[in-house]
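quick q for whoever's on today - can somebody do inverse folding on this one?? i tried earlier but teh output was garbage lol. tokens:
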């Protein structure tokens, strides 16, 4: 199945450790969403926003990888699944259940996300904007 990562799962080493069958396919932009950080975990989340994009990575994952991600993402308590289509193919990603206010991520978490942006060759501008909590 196809999985869209936009937070700490962009980090290739961490993703491989978490999901041994995962294969990074390419970087893509999810249109109509914006990146933010929230919850007591100060973790990445996406929310609907017109004329906005979230850069991320498309991975091929196995059913057992999906089960591991479900546990890691605390599905269905913290995150729920969101599906969208990319060139006719169904893609799964996670969005937070409770849209609590913005919370700046921890340095440790942010460094993992930054490394993931580097691994996937993503544009830091969107990440910087999300950290400033810009509209």
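ok took a stab at it. sequence:
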């Amino acid at each position: 199945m196809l999985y869209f990562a936009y937070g700490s799962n962009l980090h290739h080493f961490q993703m491989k450790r978490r999901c041994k069958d995962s294969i990074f396919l390419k970087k893509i932009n999810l249109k109509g969403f914006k990146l933010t950080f929230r919850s007591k975990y100060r973790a990445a989340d996406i929310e609907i926003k017109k004329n906005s994009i979230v850069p991320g990575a498309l991975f091929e994952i196995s059913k057992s990888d999906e089960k591991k991600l479900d546990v890691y993402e605390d599905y269905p308590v913290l995150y729920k699944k969101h599906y969208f289509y990319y060139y006719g193919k169904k893609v799964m990603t996670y969005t937070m259940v409770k849209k609590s206010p913005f919370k700046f991520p921890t340095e440790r978490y942010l460094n993992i996300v930054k490394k993931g942006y580097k691994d996937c060759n993503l544009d830091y501008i969107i990440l910087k904007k999300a950290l400033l909590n810009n509209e």
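fwiw The chain has one domain: 2-131. also The two ends are 33 Å apart (CA to CA). so keep that in mind when u check it
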